[in-house]
Each structure stands twice: as C-alpha cells, then as structure tokens.
Design goal:
- The structure holds two protein chains of two kinds.
- Chain A has five helices and five strands, in the order E-E-H-E-E-E-H-H-H-H.
- By secondary structure, chain A is an alpha+beta fold.
- Chain B is an alpha+beta fold.
- Chain B has 21 helices and 28 strands.
- Chain B has a seven-stranded mixed sheet with strand order 3-5-1-12-9-10-11.
- In chain B, strand 16 and strand 17 form a beta hairpin.
- The termini of chain B are far apart.
- At the A-B interface, helix 1, helix 2, helix 3, helix 4 and helix 5 of A face helix 1 and helix 19 of B.
- Chain B: InterPro entries: Ald_Oxase/Xan_DH_a/b, Ald_Oxase/Xan_DH_a/b_sf, Ald_Oxase/xanthine_DH-like, AldOxase/xan_DH_MoCoBD1, AldOxase/xan_DH_MoCoBD2, AldOxase/xan_DH_Mopterin-bd_sf.
Chain lengths: ~160, ~775
C-alpha cells in the first residue's frame, strides 16, 4: 500500500492505495466521484477524461499513485458559483448529448482542446476530439457545442481581462 | 435554459432543450456501476477461450483460497437452479430452441461463454482469482461459415443440427415475374457482423432481503426483464423489482435477458449479500449480443423500362451459438421491407436461421430492416446501371406515388402515408445533385485518380412495434402496447409515469411537451418517471422506434382521462353541466360566461375532496394502455457524395444530405439528434466496423482499438432536413425516428463507393468498404 495525497475538485484526500489502482477507480469507488464513467479498457473511448494538473488525461490510463500530490478536476468540479461552465451550457444548448455517457469526458477534452486553440475550426475540433468516442450524436452537435463553448469562453475571458 | 416554446404557445413542435441534460453534463447521473451498497460483493466471470468444446472438469477450489474470495461456482454448481435463457420469438413451430444455460455446464459453444465465477470483496481481487480456476476442455471443431454449417455431415453446434429454422413468405406469381423479365439482376451481399457498442458497458447489481429481490441493470427493458427473470429463476414476479437507472445507450444491445442478470440473482439468493458485476469493454465485445451477420442472395426481375416485376430473397442468418431473446425474429422483421418503397408484382422470401459457434446475434439498431433496405437500395442502383438510367429516375418509375396512400405492399403491409417525391426533390436540391453529377463526369473524363461517387437511398421502414395482433400472428412472445399514468399532484404539478424505458432518447423532455399541451400546465411543472417496475408497474419498454408512436400516444390518452375527470369536478364546482364546460389553455370555463377554474385549482379541490360530486373518486390520476392499429412508416431520401482515391482505396465523404419524413415532430432538436446518430452508425457499417472471428472462432475485434467505432474525425458534417407527411395511424401524426438514419445511410454510402468505381467495372465492394477492400475491388476488375 502507498499513501497518496490528491486534491479532487478542490478537496484534498489522503488515501492508502495499491500501486496498481487506477485513478478512475480511486475516483469512482473510493472518493464517490462517479461523475467520471468508464467506457473501455484500452484508453480508446475517453469517457473517463479528467484534468490532472491542468492537462486532460484518461483516468483509466493513470495510476492513482501517479496522481500523488496532484490536482484533479472532474466534470463534477466544473460548475462554479456562477452556475455551469460555458462548455456545459454549450453542450446543453446545442443538444450535444443523448445518453450522456461520453459527455463528462467529452466536455473535459473540449475544454483542454481550447487551451491550445481558443478558436478552433470545425476540422480542428474533430481532430482534437478524436480520442473521445460518442455512439449517440454522430458528433455534429458536439462540434457545434465546442464552437459555442469556445465563443462564450473567449468572450468571458475578454470581460475578465478588461 | 429549456428553450423557446413554439409559435402559438404549443409545446409540441418546440425545440425544447432537454430536461435530462442537467444531471448528465454535471456528472450527477445514476449509472448502475455507480451503485455502492453496504457489504456489496463483486463478481467476475471466467470465460471460455474455446469456440466449441466439451467441458470435462472445472475446479474452483484454488480460487476459493485466494484473499478476499467469498465464493466461487462452476456451471455444474448452479445447474439445478439456473434454468435456460429465454427465446421469446419462436418464428415457427418447427424451430429448434436449444437449451441455453446462463453458465456453461458441460459444453461451450462460443468464445466468451461463462464457465465459472468468483465472488469477492474487491473488484480487483475477483479478477485476480479467475486465474486460479482450473478448467479442462475437450476441443471440438468450430463452426463459423453458414454455408458450410448447413452441409449434412459437418460438425454440429447442437445435436439437432445447425439449422434453427426455415421461414418463408411469398406473394404474387414469382416464376411468372422472372420468366417474362428482360432484365434480371442477381447479387449476393454480405451483412457483416457488428458489435453494437453502447458507450455504457453492461452492469448489474442484485440484492435481496431474504424474500424480495431487487435487480438494477443497464437495460432497455426493465419490464420484460422482470417477467423473464421471474420465469427463469423461479423468483415470483411480485417479489422481483427491476430498475433501469440512467442507461448509457442501448441500440438494441440492452434489449436482452442476459446470463449475467440471471446469475447475479442466483448469487445474491445464495449468499444473501448484494452483488455487482460490470463488464469490461473487452468482455462486452465478446459477450454483448452482436448484430447483423446475414448472407443475402438476391434476384430482381424488371422490364426494359426499369419497372420492377419480382424480387427473390434467399437469406442465411447467423444466429450464433444460441437463440437469445428475439434472435430468430430479427431477419423476419426485414422480410417485410425488402420491397422498400416500390411496387412490384411478386415477392418470394426465404430465411434460414443457422447456428454457428459465435456469440449469438440479436437486435441492433434497425434489426432486420437495415439489411433489407441495403439489399433493395443496392439492387435499384444496379438496375439503374444495367439500363443506363439515373438511379433517381429508376426509383421514380417504381415508387408508390403520394396519391396512392394508403398502399398495401407486396409484403402485405399497409403504408399509411408518405410522399417520396417531396422528400427526394428536397434532398436533390439541398445536395446540388446535377452539379455533383457534372463534377463526377468531369473527373471521369480526365481520369482523375480521385473519383467522385454519388449514392442514393430512398428508404422506408416499419417501426413503432407494434400492433399486438400482428406480433401475435408472427409468433412474437408478447404484445406491443404501451402504458402510461398521469398523476395530478395537489400543488398542480404533474407526474407522468411511462412504461417506455429511455436510455438517451429524451423521453423526459418529449413527454413533458405532450402533457403540457394536453393539460395546459407549464413544461417545467411536469416530471417523467420511468424504468423502475415498482414505480412504473406496466410497460413494454424501448426498442424498434416505438416510444413516441406507442408510448407517447398512451401518455396522451391518460391525459384525456385526467381532463375528463377534472371536467366533471369543475362542472360541479362551477354549478354547470359538464357538457357546457370548455377546456382550453389549462382552464375549465363555462361556455358563454367568464366563470372558470384552472386545472391546478381542480387538482387541489380534488385532493381536499371537501366538495366533490356524489360518487366521484377523489383522484384525477389516470392510466392508459395504447395498442396501435398499424406500424409506423417513416421514410426519406438520403444522398451521399464520396471521394474515392483509386490509388490507395481511401474514401472521404464529401457531403451527406438526409431528408427524413417522420411525420409531425414533437421536438425538432431531438429528431435531428436521432437522425445524426443513426447516420453515424449506418455509415460505420458501410465504412468502418466489422466483428472478425479467426478460423478457430476467436473474436479478433475485442477492443475499441480493433473494432473501429468512428470518431469525430472519421465523420462529416451532415445536412439534415425534413418533409412532414403526417401519419394517419395515430392522433399526433408522428412516426418513429430512432432507427431511420441507420437504415437509410448504409446503402447510400456503399452506393456512392460503387458509383465512384463504375468506370473500373466494379459492381460491389464488401462492407466495411475499407481502403484495402476498395483497392482490391479495383485491382480485381482492372487486372
């Protein structure tokens, strides 16, 4: 067993974990963070995507011990005092989800995508989300949502900057 | 946040944003795998690595000594109580229904079949202990090819042989149609095996208090499941509660009574503890029922002007190793759709169900109808090519004209409504058909290595399952009605209980829109309850694009009854005759006066019950069960332009236009979403996906790295539009939409690929049309 300290959605946890425990199982089964689901076992689907120290990772491909001293943000930590994150609103407005199982990972990956490219083309969005699979939407509305989320986020940033 | 109501104040027709989204975008969803119960144990299954073998020994004793292991069982340990998994669709009397033990006892018949299980305090320890189980197998030959399987002296999957059934349908004089025909097109098409791949893996949690049982499952069919599990396990139906919490997609794959659901009930009964099992994706690819897998031998007879005279279909359908819930009926659903939207004089259909040593097949989005639509739409393109006609023109010469509805087809279905001309004209205009044909011609003329192909699919389908009488005539094991309850709460809010069980479709939103209009209550004052047999006690669940056209009408009928009860109470309170009471916009008013009461006021007065008319119950709550008279027949025209690099075989969809006619629309946003997702799955069959078994019967595509579910980068943007020909078979005028995109798109894409390669003499490319297959098709005809 290894003792780790990890912050998840603003709360710091100390946990004794087996070295082989996956981050996603730590989140789901130890910390009750079930907002992050598991869709595969080969890191293809991206449903379990979270932010680890500001970068998106597939939490099924990260060991809990690798997150020691780390700061994890899941979909459950996105909404703030002002309500939903712009990307959450955009997914809702554009009907970018149906069953919603891929949605937490898709939203986290979309936010990560915008860090490098705040105003992506449709093609850049499609390639940027290549590692996140959705079986319901055919992706059209996800692309629209990311575009809308990007516009809202850049608008928001401008307001903050001024 | 929930969108604007439609003009005129009607909710039906408005692009309401979904109520479901709030929990889904914030991670507060209740998936089955989220459930943690005190003392809960984890189950893991050891699965057969052999496609076909006698099981001569299973020893779980070493596993029991592993840390954290509470129990371990072989199939023999459970044999006395596990029963046989049900097949509810014996398509004819002679059909062979083999015993299907949830856990193999002395034979395994596909790779992945469960042979033993362990129960542990910990998910990881359960999986660790599987390696300590010893199993001896006595291998038998795998049976993989359907044609080989039907030969007399080959290896048998079951003692009764490899033929499950032969099912026939014939109408008209087929011999005459072919005898006199100047044009006969004969083709063989392969509907490859597919893996449905709902994003949420299956998950089951079972618990008992010693007398009653509760089963949570990621299922499409909590109600059917309850009845079937009661029969298989012997747990009385009234002691078994089934709950489908939030379910992450199904596409038919969760329309099943699975081995794991039965086994977890047995385990909780034996151990008295809550037990949970969640599959890994690799486990799921092996053991979630597969879709399609048919061999289609087709002959079409036509006259010299391209009028279709007759169609012969000789189908081999791979059942896999066993018959699961509706396995044998899937190709039979297709039997009624091979004629598509076309008129013809004669039709002859034969389907042979064949056992192989592979995972059983069963419903997958479209279920029989994509296969049929693919066949006829590919044949219509072949006919057009044979006669040097435009593929649109050959369709125009054969389709049912809009003034001919209702029209009884050669397959004895009566299509209630449709307008194929309007949908096609709209699609051609959006697509820029003539311009793309000009570009195609230009590329052909200059020998461009990147050729352009244009694919057409003018489809219809039968959905909205279904009239109970028709299902009965097809030997289906249940009815096709749907149930709804509408409860008026004292504060004027409304609870709608639906027997339809959503897993992504948006019932909570659409049903709220229907009820808001019917009762005149605000959209936000309505909540929709579903998926728990203790709360929603009656239902036939969700599949076959049936929710709105059956379940939605049941909701409406329950609203009628609420309104009628409220009218009598309103009349009493307003001291008027019920005949003089009008109901509009949520208010009961006395005709010709200003006096009135809102439905909320009536709800409160009914709750208080201080002043009700004599003999009237103190409740407005109402139930309705609706059974339609006919199926639903959505239709549409899909056009696909695809670029094919003839040097590499790579394809790229340049544009895709889908004009669907699903009748009246309750929520255009949800309808468009259903079409988009359907297109993606149909295109996936055309270009990307195939479940592949090796010659020993091992599934090679066990992961998402091997089985290519398309990503955003693999698919184009879609242009979607609608024409609106109201259904005459239900009062909302609505038609099913869940499967339409999948049914229409596969032939549109393959027609486009083949059209691009016509100059090379290519008549077919087997699905999925991978770069290798496209390249080989060119090499074979040009070398």
């Amino acid at each position: 067993m290894t003792r780790i300290t990890v912050t998840v959605d603003g709360v710091t946890y100390e946990e004794e974990v087996e070295p082989r425990l996956l981050l996603v199982h730590l989140l789901r089964e130890r910390l009750g963070k079930t907002g992050t689901p598991i869709g595969c076992d080969t890191s293809n689907c991206g449903a379990c995507t979270v932010m680890l120290d500001g970068t998106s990772v597939k939490s099924c491909s990260v060991l809990a011990v690798q997150a020691d001293e780390g700061d994890v943000l899941t979909v459950e930590g996105l909404a703030g005092g002002g309500g939903w994150h712009p990307m959450q609103r955009a997914f809702h407005e554009e009907h970018a989800l149906q069953c919603g199982y891929c949605t937490p990972g898709m939203i986290m990956a979309a936010i990560d995508l915008l860090k490098d490219d705040p105003d992506p083309s449709d093609e850049a969005i499609r390639h940027g989300l290549e590692g996140n699979l959705c079986r319901c939407t055919g992706y059209c509305n996800i692309v629209r949502a990311v575009r809308r989320g990007a516009a809202e986020m850049s608008g928001h940033q401008e307001v903050t900057a001024s | 946040m929930t969108g604007e109501p439609a003009p005129g104040g009607h909710e039906v027709g408005a692009a309401r944003r979904r109520k479901e989204d709030a929990r889904l975008v914030t991670g507060r969803t209740q998936w089955t795998d989220n459930i943690q119960l005190p003392g809960m144990l984890h189950v893991a299954f050891l699965r057969s690595p052999m496609a076909h073998a006698r099981v001569t020994r299973v020893d779980v004793s070493a596993a029991l000594r592993r840390p954290g292991i509470v129990a371990a069982f072989s199939g023999a340990d459970l044999a006395a109580e596990q029963g046989s998994l049900p097949c509810a669709w014996p398509v004819n009397d002679g059909m062979v229904i083999p015993e299907h033990p949830p856990m193999a006892v002395d034979m395994v018949r596909y790779v992945g079949e469960a042979v033993a299980c362990v129960v542990s305090t910990d998910r990881y320890k359960a999986i660790d202990a599987l390696e300590a189980i010893e199993v001896d197998y006595d291998p038998l030959p795998a049976v993989l090819d359907m044609t080989e399987a039907l030969k007399e002296d080959g290896p048998k999957v079951h003692e009764a042989g490899n033929q499950a059934y032969v099912w026939k349908f014939a109408e008209g004089d087929i011999d005459a149609a072919f005898r006199e025909a100047p044009v006969v097109i004969e083709r063989t098409y392969v509907q490859q095996r597919l893996i449905p791949t709902a994003m949420e893996p299956r998950s089951v949690v079972a618990q008992t208090d010693g007398e009653s049982f509760t089963l949570h499952s990621a299922t499409q069919i909590p109600h059917i499941l309850r009845i079937m599990l009661a029969q298989v396990t012997g747990i009385p139906e009234h002691k078994l509660r089934v709950i489908a919490p939030d379910v992450g997609g199904g596409f038919g794959s969760k329309l099943q009574v699975t081995a794991e659901e039965v086994l977890l009930l047995l385990l909780t009964r034996r151990l008295g503890k809550p037990v949970k099992w969640t599959e890994s994706r690799s486990e799921g690819n092996l053991t979630v029922h597969h879709g399609r897998d048919q061999l289609q031998r087709l002959s079409l007879a036509a006259d010299a002007e391209g009028h279709v005279k007759g169609l012969r279909v000789d189908l081999l359908a791979d059942m896999g190793a066993y018959l699961m819930l509706v396995t044998p009926g899937i190709p039979i659903l297709g039997a009624f759709m091979y004629n598509g939207i076309y008129k013809m004089d004669a039709y002859d259909f034969t389907c042979t169900g064949v056992f192989t040593t592979k995972m059983p097949t069963d419903a997958y989005r479209g279920a029989g109808r994509p296969e049929a639509t693919f066949a006829i739409e590919r044949l219509m393109d072949e006919l057009a090519h044979e006669l040097s006609l435009d593929p649109i023109e050959v369709r125009r010469r054969n389709w049912i004209a809009h003034e001919e509805f209702p029209y009884t087809t050669i397959a004895n279905l009566t299509y209630d409504s449709g307008n194929y001309e309007a949908a096609t004209d709209r699609a051609l205009s959006l697509f820029g058909y003539d311009k793309l044909r000009a570009e195609q011609s230009d590329r052909r003329d200059r020998g461009d290595p990147v050729q352009l192909g244009i694919g057409v699919s003018t489809f219809t389908e039968m959905c909205g399952l279904a009239p109970s009488r028709v299902l009965g005539s097809l030997s289906y094991g249940a009815g096709g009605w749907e149930h709804a309850s509408v409860r008026m709460l004292p504060t004027g809010k409304v609870e709608v209980v639906t027997g339809s069980s959503p897993h992504g479709q948006g019932h909570e939103t659409a049903w709220s829109q229907i009820v808001a209009d019917a009762l005149g209550v605000p959209f936000d004052d309505i909540s929709v309850v579903h998926g728990d047999t203790a709360v929603s006690h009656k239902g036939m669940d969700t599949y076959g694009s049936r929710s709105l056209v059956v379940g939605g009408i049941a909701v409406l009928q329950a609203c009628d009854k609420v309104q009628e009860k409220a009218r009598h109470i309103a009349a009493h309170l307003l001291e008027a005759s019920p005949d003089d009471i009008e109901f509009t916009g949520g208010s009961f008013t006395v005709r010709g006066t200003g006096a009135g009461k809102t439905i909320q006021e009536i709800a409160l007065a009914t709750f208080a019950a201080h002043d009700l008319p004599d003999g009237v119950e103190a409740s407005l709550d109402s139930d309705a069960t609706y059974d339609p008279d006919n199926f639903s027949f959505p239709h549409g025209t899909h056009l696909c332009a695809i670029e094919v690099d003839t040097e590499t075989g790579a394809t790229r969809i340049r544009s895709y236009v889908a004009v669907d006619d699903v009748g009246k629309v309750v929520n255009p946003l949800i309808v468009e979403g259903q079409v988009h997702g359907g297109l993606a799955q149909g295109i996936a069959q055309a270009l990307f996906e195939e479940a592949v078994y090796d010659p020993e019967g091992n599934l090679l595509t066990t992961t998402m790295a091997d089985y290519l579910v398309p990503s955003a980068a693999d698919l184009p943007d879609f242009v979607t539009d609608r024409t609106e020909t109201a259904a005459t078979s239900n009062r909302l005028g609505v038609k099913g939409v869940g499967e339409a995109g999948t049914i229409a798109s596969t032939p549109a894409v393959v027609n486009a690929v083949v059209d691009a390669l016509r100059p090379y003499g290519v008549h077919d490319v087997r699905m999925p049309c991978t770069p290798e297959r496209v390249w080989r098709a060119i090499q074979e005809t040009t070398s």
